[in-house]
Write a sequence for this structure.
């Protein structure tokens, strides 16, 4: 089940961004994303929650756009704690974070995907391993706002063109499943687990 999500706002320029997220429930999973530097490589060096290091899923860059990265932490501390995103150089940092409960605490993630798109919609398709799995991730459209596509819910956004998305329900049976966003112009990218 989805818990809550929060935007860290815009840090420009900076080498770190700190914002608070409150988690609750059991069998928690934290997702954190950053959309930042437009240079030749992703400059995020680490993400922590309540001092615990998150694990990077991957990072991806739309054509001529901001790098997008996704990080996760299984069984994050409960209550109000700080998310800290650190970078190797002073640049744009735009963090968002959200958490889920009732998530398997072992073998995560069992499937991941990432994609660039040059036209709407941006569709993230992955092959789920377990029956009744949720899909969750992050989507970015550099030049326009995003809206939730088919069977997708848009959570916290950090600007009109960037946000956490999920399936808002278990998918059955296991196999090829997707979530998507739509947008009007420009290049886009997404990462899902």
């Amino acid at each position: 089940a989805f818990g809550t999500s929060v935007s860290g706002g815009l840090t420009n320029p900076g080498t770190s961004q700190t914002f608070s997220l409150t988690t609750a429930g059991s069998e928690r999973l934290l997702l954190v994303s950053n959309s930042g530097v437009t240079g030749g490589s992703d400059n995020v060096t680490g993400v922590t929650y309540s001092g615990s290091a998150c694990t990077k899923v991957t990072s991806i860059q739309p054509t001529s756009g901001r790098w997008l990265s996704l990080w996760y932490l299984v069984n994050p501390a409960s209550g109000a704690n700080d998310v800290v995103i650190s970078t190797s150089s002073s640049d744009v940092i735009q963090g968002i974070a959200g958490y889920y409960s009732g998530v398997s605490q072992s073998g995560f993630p069992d499937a991941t995907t990432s994609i660039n798109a040059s036209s709407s919609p941006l569709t993230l398709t992955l092959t789920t391993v377990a029956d009744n799995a949720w899909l969750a991730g992050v989507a970015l459209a550099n030049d326009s706002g995003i809206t939730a596509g088919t069977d997708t819910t848009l959570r916290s956004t950090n600007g009109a063109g960037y946000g956490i998305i999920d399936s808002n329900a278990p998918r059955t049976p296991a196999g090829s499943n997707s979530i998507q966003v739509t947008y009007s112009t420009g290049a886009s990218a997404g990462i899902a687990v």
